Amino acid sequence: MSEAARRPLILGNWKMHGLGADLAEIARIDDAVAELGVDAGLMLPASLMERAARQVRTVKIGGQDCYPAAEGAHTGGVSAAMLRDSGAALTLVGHSETREDSLSVAAKARAAQAAGLTVVICVGEGERSADARGLVAAQLRASLPPDLNWSRAAIAYEPVWCIGGDAVPDAAHLARIFEMLRAEAGEARLLYGGAVDGGNAAELLALAGVDGLLVGRASRSVADFLPVLEAAACG
Ligand code: PGA
């Protein structure tokens, strides 16, 4: 894999947080990303995306989910083209907090790429399991559209039992999962997500197969996000 493809990708997932008043914090994060030269994105609520996209210089703006259809009578739906039109360069699909069945995740991934977005497909086992590798492999295969363009895709492994908690899986567990993901996921960048913070980012990025991080709580302020970005800049 080329050097550029191995450059860590750090994504902050703001979930249902963020109002106009938070644009100043986004500007501070953007400055830090520019200064450190890190490949980074903020996955924002749709309501904030366009204002954020207009003001940032370096950090990419992304969506958190998209509707599988291009347009239509889908009240409340936000299509991939709408995300792109609002300034998004990428979007998550299949995050455990929005996940429906894997068929729908695959349809969303396809819609995202058709609209010109890079797609980050999230997978992860619901609870601690000795068979996590097999479960995640099956979930991943079912979540991939047949015509996926791997060069514009990333896979985020997010064990649901770690999201919102304070512990990450041990290195042996992560090694088993990332070895499988590398075999399944072509040239896509592989991210780890779930309880990432400034204290564990460097260690996670040093693990074989981990090309980046998907960060929830620790991405919402420059104070918390900076050490994660610094870990990626140093790696
Ligand atoms: P967390 O969330 O970093 O707050 O655990 C990660 C995510 O759900 O993407």
Structure description:
This protein is α/β, with parallel strands linked by helices and 235 residues long. It has a single domain (3-234), classed as Aldolase class I (TIM Barrel). Helix content is 39%, strand content 16%. The protein has helices at residues 3-6, 23-36, 46-55, 80-85, 102-114, 132-143, 171-184, 201-205, 222-234; strands spanning 9-13, 39-43, 60-63, 90-93, 118-123, 153-157, 189-193, 212-215. The protein has an 8-stranded parallel barrel with strand order 1-2-3-4-5-6-7-8, surrounded by 5 helices. Helix 2 (23-36) packs parallel to helix 9 and helix 5 packs across helix 6. The relative contact order is 0.16. The model is unreliable at 1-5 (pLDDT under 50).
Main sheet strand line-up: 1-2-3-4-5-6-7-8
Quaternary structure annotation: single chain
DSSP, total strands: 8
The ordered H/E elements are: HEHEHEHEHEHEHEHEH
Give the cofactors and ligands: 2-phosphoglycolic acid
The helix content is 25-40%
Give the full name of the CATH homologous superfamily: Aldolase class I
CATH architecture: Alpha-Beta Barrel
Shape: globular
Draw up the topology in text.
Elements: H1 3-6, E1 9-13, H2 23-36, E2 39-43, H3 46-55, E3 60-63, H4 80-85, E4 90-93, H5 102-114, E5 118-123, H6 132-143, E6 153-157, H7 171-184, E7 189-193, H8 201-205, E8 212-215, H9 222-234
Parallel strand pairs: 1-2, 1-8, 2-3, 3-4, 4-5, 5-6, 6-7, 7-8
Helix pairs in contact: 2-9, 5-6, 6-7
The protein binds 2-phosphoglycolic acid.
2-phosphoglycolic acid is lined by residues 13, 158, 163-164, 193-196, 214-217.
